[in-house]
Amino acid sequence: MGERKVTVAAEVGLHARPAATFVQRAKLAPMDITVTKSHGGDSVNGKSILAIMALDVRQGETVVISADGEGSEEILDELAAIASTP
Amino acid sequence: MNLRGVGVSPGIGHGPSYVLTVSVPEPPEGATYTGEAEQEKERAMAALTQVAGELEARGNQAGGKAEEILKAQALMAEDPGVVVKVRSLIDRGLAAPRAVFEAFTKYRDVLAGSGGYLGERAADLGDIRDRVIAQLYGQPVPGLPLAPEQPYVLVARDLAPADTALLSRDEVVAFVTEEGGPTSHTAIMARAIGVPAVVACPGATGIPAGVEVMVDGTSGEVRVAPAESDVADAVGAATARRAALASWNGPGATSDGHPVPLLANVGGPAELDAAVAAGAEGIGLFRTEFLYLDRADPPSAEEQRRAYRAALAAFPREKVVVRTLDVGADKPLAFLPAPAEPNPALGERGLRRFMRSPAMMDVQLAALAAEAAESTGAGLRVMAPMVATAEEATWFTRECADHGLTDVGVMIEIPAAALRAADLLAMVDFVSIGTNDLSQYAFAADRRLGAVSALHDPWQPGLLDLVAMTAEAATRVGKPCGVCGESAADPALACVLVGLGVSSLSMAPSALAGVRAGLAAHSLEQCRAAAQAARAQPSASDARTAARVHLPGLAGLGL
């Protein structure tokens, strides 16, 4: 299982444009993508904007993005880049 | 059919009605379907995809901030969580519309419970849900027409700033709303773009879609399917009146030459042309919220400077008063999430919010200071909204001074600030009375609530007393005291305000001609007599009647 641990840098957190960009990219992936707050809590579907929004990740918080399967490393890199863009 | 409401933006507008359906009926609880579950699911999926596609397409067409918002909404319409929930509800026997209703409502409640920014998104979900259900029922989808064939009369229960943000007078000839009052967003928006409007009009949403409607924004009369000759008469009379008023020009003054600069309230660069064309002698209120609303990131200093530069270019020799950001829980910012408040009007808004966001304040004050330093005319002044105490005024003046801004004022919108105007005036260079909020706070009556709109009569003697106290305090120390609320737009009340000692009036550009003509027809002495007579009355309607006795020139102008 591939994972990336990233600190969300955008002032709005993982909401608004960062959330939409993240989900738009995740939706294109063939495999499941999950997002978990690193301080515990549920894993949510990374292709669901509502689940991501409800996770309520604020600026400076760290999340773990997970995916498994062929091509998952590249996708994880891209998603990590989106989440850590200020 | 004739309806009557409160006219809040003068003029005659007529055209086919467009009734904005805000609430699609809730599909009955436990509604079932006949036929196969798979077919019912396909029907639901097709509707979700269709709505997502439309939102995406609207986003592409709108561009900019609206594009971002609409594309995020498109993602919500096809959210996998919603899809799974809808499918399982259909498997359990619920009809597609009911399944859609329950799935979205579940998520909406989750978001609404979080409050703040997420709570705002809950309203988006309600809107998307209604679109999908309308689609399943084969009803017209709620929302404003994208490219109307002809300008229409917009009819709604109430309008939110988001509904009206993209409207222009090329599309809309009049507004009619069932709720709202003279200071509601609908009213302000209508006056800003110069479109007639009637609010607090019972039965408005019962107007059939597409039928011809004539709206008299002065009398408040709304006529459904009027005779053609009546439309022609009303339009002719309104045109004649406008022409008569337009013949008055030049700077604002009473008949005996007491100067009263007549300024424009401007909500963004798009409204500058109208202000110049109407002969405004400067900008008395340049709102800056347009720079911040409906976007993911705060505006950069350079972007702000462009907007301020545009205002100074439109009025190169006149004064331009810029109000710093005025937002609160009722106008949420995507990049500055705020906790939900039970009473947003009494919460952290205006200067209070600014004080807690030093980074954002720094960018705005620095951008203003940079433009002020480069402008060569009468120049740029800055004022803060929602100031309650002298300490707050002192804080703001000091922050401005740190950025090199020297001509600094505060708005008087809170009764405590009016009562202690002398203390605030000691700290600032000028004050500007925002009568809309002052009325809201003095009468403890929500501006957006139609049920209490009767209290929002700008002629209320209590409100006039607060204006008088502020103006007297300013006169004593020789500092300017303007009014930039909607009171200033009423020609009779404008005379009264001048009589109370107000030194300049700022209003929607469409109101300038009437106010200029009204002032020019009366002496300062008549204005003072009218003010005194109005304050001596126990009620708003008595105050209006008593003042007009001393303002004989108004009737002849059709004002």
From TrEMBL, chain A:
The keyword Nucleus does not apply. Its main location: cytoplasm. Residues 1-86 form the HPr domain. General (non sugar-specific) component of the phosphoenolpyruvate-dependent sugar phosphotransferase system (sugar PTS). This major carbohydrate active-transport system catalyzes the phosphorylation of incoming sugar substrates concomitantly with their translocation across the cell membrane. The phosphoryl group from phosphoenolpyruvate (PEP) is transferred to the phosphoryl carrier protein HPr by enzyme I. Phospho-HPr then transfers it to the PTS EIIA domain. GO terms for cellular component: cytoplasm. This is Phosphocarrier protein HPr. Keywords: Cytoplasm, Phosphotransferase system. It comes from the Bacteria. It is found in: Cytoplasm. It comes from Nonomuraea fuscirosea. InterPro entries: HPr, HPr-like, HPr-like_sf, PTS_HPr_His_P_site. One of its GO terms (biological process) is phosphoenolpyruvate-dependent sugar phosphotransferase system.
UniProtKB/TrEMBL annotation, chain B:
It catalyses: L-histidyl-[protein] + phosphoenolpyruvate = N(pros)-phospho-L-histidyl-[protein] + pyruvate. Phosphoenolpyruvate binds at residues 287, 323, 436-437, 447. Pfam families: PEP-utilisers_N (PF05524), PEP-utilizers (PF00391), PEP-utilizers_C (PF02896). Keywords: Cytoplasm, Kinase, Magnesium, Metal-binding, Phosphotransferase system, Pyruvate, Sugar transport, Transferase, Transport. Residues 251-520 form the PEP-utilising enzyme C-terminal domain. Its cofactor is Mg(2+). Its EC number is 2.7.3.9. One of its GO terms (molecular function) is metal ion binding. Residues 4-121 form the Phosphotransferase system enzyme I N-terminal domain. GO terms for biological process: phosphoenolpyruvate-dependent sugar phosphotransferase system. SUPFAM superfamilies: Enzyme I of the PEP:sugar phosphotransferase system HPr-binding (sub)domain (SSF47831), Phosphoenolpyruvate/pyruvate domain (SSF51621), Phosphohistidine domain (SSF52009). One of its GO terms (cellular component) is cytoplasm. The keyword Kinase applies. Mg(2+) binds at residues 413, 437. It is found in: Cytoplasm. The active site is at 185 (tele-phosphohistidine intermediate), 484 (proton donor). InterPro entries: PEP-util_enz_mobile_dom (IPR008279), PEP-utilizing_PTS_enzyme (IPR050499), PEP_util_AS (IPR018274), PEP_util_C (IPR000121), PEP_util_CS (IPR023151), Phosphohistidine_dom_sf (IPR036637), PTS_EI (IPR024692), PTS_EI-like (IPR006318). This is Phosphoenolpyruvate-protein phosphotransferase. It comes from Nonomuraea fuscirosea.
